[in-house]
Please model this.
Amino acid sequence: MLAKMAVPVQSHLILIILLYCCMVLGISQAQLQVGFYGNTCPDAESIVTSVVRAASLFNPNTAAVLLRLHYHDCFIQGCDGSILIDQSGAERHAFESEGVGGFEVIERAKAQLEEVCPGVVSCADIVALAARDAIVLANGPGYQVPTGRRDGLVSSVSMADSLPDVHDSIQQLKTKFFFKGLSEKDLVVLTACFFMIHRLYNFFPGGGSDPAINPDFLPELKSQCPQNVDVNVRLPIDPGSDQTFDNNILQNIRNGFAVLASDARLYEDEGTRSVVDSYFGVSAQIFGPVFERDFVNSMVRMGQIGVLTGFEGEIRRVCAAFN
Model:
């Protein structure tokens, strides 16, 4: 939501261009602020943290699950909690959303918040906070999450088409990130998907594996993901480091051990390859943990895509259903 601006008549063309760019890029920072619930629900963030911590003790994959949930929520039609709606035709049931989880964690946090601060904390904010907390519990960087999102009033399977797909070319991936206001660097540090069958068995017409897969890695992938099995079987996309936050996945991409086709393409494009390489070598040793800083910046930027604020949307009583 853009604030009203008084501008000279001769500047109307510039204003139109700026408005267009803001609509296309999809980033909105209006009325989002760190500590938004400081007065209305001061324990909001600590409640979410405690629920995520308990879930992580039960399931070590919680960090990856909640991170992916946040990613799907933001990319489909903005960070508005629409991925949480559980009804026929909702985006949660789109093909692109197969394997997305963590819904029960968000609902547990919402239930506890409703007991303390009914009708105050949005489901969209819970998703963003839970992703941050899960990253911290996986030994990742802590960061402040601007809050104040409202929950969306629409959730549709058809809107899931905008989600980056593992079959997308690198140019398609770049374009989808660009139209959400995100950069090549955001693409590198945020990209994550899960389908693998196509890359292992049907990369060419008539069958065959993606030749970009390291031949030493191919038998291991096929043993974990045999043909004609449940497509929701989970593979670690970060072999050797799948439950800990680090930049190991980028090293795997450089060495030809990328699990996903979309990850492998990051090293085929000159622009994204330079971003991957920037996290290694002498410069990375001199300037320290640049990857963590960039990851935090990208997470905050992604969390501002298409948000609803003020009187837009609603604050749901239950995250899986509209009020």
User: Anything to note?
Assistant: Residues 95 and 157 are 8 Å apart (CA to CA). The first helix runs from residue 12 to 25. DSSP finds 14 helices and no strands in the chain. Confidence is low (pLDDT under 50) at residues 1-29, 192-199, 229-244.
